[in-house]
Amino acid sequence: MDEETDGILQNRPAARDLDAIDRRILGVLVDDATISYAELGDRVGLSPPAAHERVKRLRRSGAIRNTVAIIDPRAVKKALLAFVHIDTRGWGKTPELMAVSQYPEVEEIHTVAGDTCMLLKIRTEDTRALEGLLARLYETPGVTSTRSYVVLSTYLERPVQPGITETWPTPKHMAEPLY
Amino acid sequence: MDEETDGILQNRPAARDLDAIDRRILGVLVDDATISYAELGDRVGLSPPAAHERVKRLRRSGAIRNTVAIIDPRAVKKALLAFVHIDTRGWGKTPELMAVSQYPEVEEIHTVAGDTCMLLKIRTEDTRALEGLLARLYETPGVTSTRSYVVLSTYLERPVQPGITETWPTPKHMAEPLY
DNA sequence: CATAATGGCCGTATTCTATTCAGCAGAGAA
DNA sequence: TTCTCTGCTGAATAGAATACGGCCATTATG
User: Fold this and answer.
1) Residue A112 maps to which CATH number?
2) Which of A133, B57, B108, B148 is the most interior residue, by most CB within 10 Å?
3) Which of the 52-111 residues on chain B come under 7 Å of nucleic strand D at their beta carbon?
4) CATH number of the domain to which A32 belongs
5) Does B57 fall in a domain?
6) Is residue A54 part of a domain?
């Protein structure tokens, strides 16, 4: 349904500021995007077509990136979470980033202020799979480990989720290997 | 539309294993949950009612936790990301966790293997808001800082996102202050 | 072995929702 | 004032979700 897919390092044209109703719409949809436009309109005080028009505009402007199902990792046997720092001194950035972002187990990549590393959030089935992934990762030219730690137990993960400063294209083959 | 909301530390009844079609459905919906059941059925080789039945079952079993809109933090002026460790020695866990998970800026809470800390992922508007949040956080009894770092630039954030080992209820007032 | 029961699928029918459209009202500009 | 633009409403239409009856394969059961 999204007619445009993200390009490499594409920056959106800077959307117009949101008003109060827009923010309330986002607040509703970030919790549950399965409601009807009639219901949404009720909650924010608009008619169904008006609510629909707002949502369309929010999608066009990029404020709503997309609408997705949130999967329980236990159901697909992907419940081990790890945060891994990799040293990025001497990187050419783009090709290495592309390589790293190819792995479907890598959910997030951030640069860290005041440091020469990047932080990866990685979700795998078990420690064996994690070790395998790290081994493959460190074969990537320019990637070396600094430190990492594994998550024992997760108490909160909120459904808020987006590319921020620069957005990398989500590898489309992800759907296959992950699930 | 979800008839049941998560309870405190509630564990789902352990869903039956997923077959190949279930996994393909999840793989589709985790990318885009706005498609019709006709389209979904096409992609996985089922009729629309059969695809619908599968998705209903996946929802009932908890494999699909919910369906949400992914918001661009820039649009709502929440683009500063920080990872913060807090020391948790001497915690009673539950009340402190409840207090910490009340802040809508706190997106994730994890315990770390082999350490006495918890890792928080925090998203705020700017450094001022982050400092304010940290100040309030450290007023929480039992919460002390160990180390933290701020994310300069995010290259990848994938729409996969769930409560894992134990699930905390998402504070419902979140919708108001955040958006 | 025969046969009943079950689970999952399909095609059709119906209900409900999304979407389009015409017209109206308020805000801002000339 | 008057024009224009934007965003709203309610009604009409197109389209999707959902319910239902029947079919087939697999598995349990006498």
Assistant:
1) 3.30.70.920
2) B108
3) 52
4) 1.10.10.10
5) yes
6) yes
Last residue of a domain, one of B61, B89, B111: B61
- SS3 track for A161-173: CCCCCCCCCCCHH
> Which of the two residues, B138 and A93, has the higher pLDDT score?
B138
Question: Cα distance from B50 to chain A (closest Cα, Å)?
Answer: 18
Q: Other C-beta atoms within 10 Å of B17: how many?
A: 8
Strand C within 7 A of B41 CB: yes
pLDDT along chain A (179 residues), means of 10: 30 61 92 94 95 95 90 83 88 80 86 89 89 88 82 72 41 35
Q: Of B28, B61, B94, at which residue does a domain stop?
A: B61
Q: Is residue A105 located within the same domain as residue A148?
A: yes
Q: Residue B114 has which token pair?
A: 């082999």
Residue B119 to residue A151, Cβ atoms within 8 A:
yes
**Which pLDDT score is estimated for B167?**
40
Domain region containing B37: 20-61
Cross-chain residue pair A162–B73, CB shorter than 8 Å: yes
Confidence of residue B116 (pLDDT cuts 50, 70, 90): confident
What residues have CB less than 8 Å from B60, skipping those under 6 apart?
none
Residue (of A93, A126, A2, A77) closest to B70 by Cα position: A2
CA dist list (Å): B128 to A7, A9, A161, B144: 32, 27, 22, 19
Angle, vertex CA A17, rays to CA B72 and CA A1, nearest 5: 45
Count CB-CB contacts under 10 A for residue B47: 12
DSSP code string of B35-53: S-HHHHHHHHT--HHHHHH
Per-residue model confidence (pLDDT) at position B16 = 62
Cα A56 to Cα B30: distance, rounded to the nearest angstrom: 20
Using the CB atom, is residue A37 less than 7 Å from strand C? Answer: yes
> Which of A138-142, B69-73, B126-130 has the lowest average pLDDT?
A138-142
* Residue B6 domain-assigned (yes or no): no
